[in-house]
Amino acid sequence: MPYVRCVGESWPLTLDRANFEYQALSVQFSLCPKLIPKVHYFSRSDALMIMDYIAPPNIILRKGLIAGIKYPTLSQDLGEFCARTLFGTSALKLSASEMRKECKFWVTNTEMCALTETVVFREPYIDAPNNRWTSPQLDNDKKMIEEDVQLKVAASKLNKKFITQSQALLHADLHTGSVMCSPADGQTFVIDPEFAFYGPMGFDIGAIIANLFLNYVSQRGHNNSPGYDEWILEQVVILWNTFEATFCQLWNDPVEHTGDAYHRSLFTDESSLIACQEAFMREIFVDALGFCGMKMLRRIVGIAHVEDLESIEDPDMRATCERHGLEVAKELIKNASKYENINDAVTMVASKTVNK
Description:
Structural class: mainly alpha
CATH superfamily: Aminoglycoside phosphotransferase (APH), C-terminal lobe
Order of helices and strands: EEHEEEHHHHHHEEEEHHHHHH
CATH class: Alpha Beta
Oligomer: single chain
Distance between the termini: 40 Å
Number of helices: 13
Largest sheet: 3 strands, antiparallel
CATH architecture: Alpha-Beta Complex
Radius of gyration: 20 Å
């Protein structure tokens, strides 16, 4: 559609985003074909794309998580998707000249980046007409966000990273509504990369983890089987660990690590390479937690919410779940660097208590 779907014609968008989606799907398919639907035809003038039909029992992941479905390969698949697409489009794989060429093309997806910068990094922290939240239950929570200077400073630093750090080609809208899954055969497909651009690697990982955390905090408002909330948190740990292991495995492979970043000629002994990898992965981890918090907060008090929470009919229960999410979000935005590993972050999420 030539406008923002959740707003309408008052917020127009160019159909050029269909071309960016097609180009991103093509790149992602070349790097991770088992997790991406194949595109068979694309017309830029008509914004028309023909791709593989993702047949039932595959459904949108968000709906499956709300229904309490367990997916046997979900977290491994998403961790692998992030690792292969981010590594394969970074300067670890590409030469400096190739990297600059790619950045030159993807930097032109300006409308979609501007949309993200508005609805993720700015509006939720101010009094903006697009914002909405469960009122009056969260009125004071929203006011506290607008008055929290430390939160705004931290959010602004993450916004600067989003604007200036071109590490790899991002999906840039990697939430549970952009994934389709089937528990029967362990299929996973990542779709809808119309926001794709070159940005900080932690943004994609943080986005998908944020949506798993949002589902986790919504669980008390749903009637899923006992222990399902714990299963959700387990998936976060597996996803990050799979991402980290796969990314480093690619880096260790001289067939894959052909780029100019951390050039192999500089690191001839294993210990120096490991030191580089540890520092690099630490930076991505901290970024991912910060961006995770940003994506959570915007889905509770910004323009676009998530069905996980919106489907809770009792407004008091919904507000309780949302307040849990806000407390997690603010903690991650302000204090991401204090968490040593993914288990520490997950423990924090589970231990947060909120008043009704």
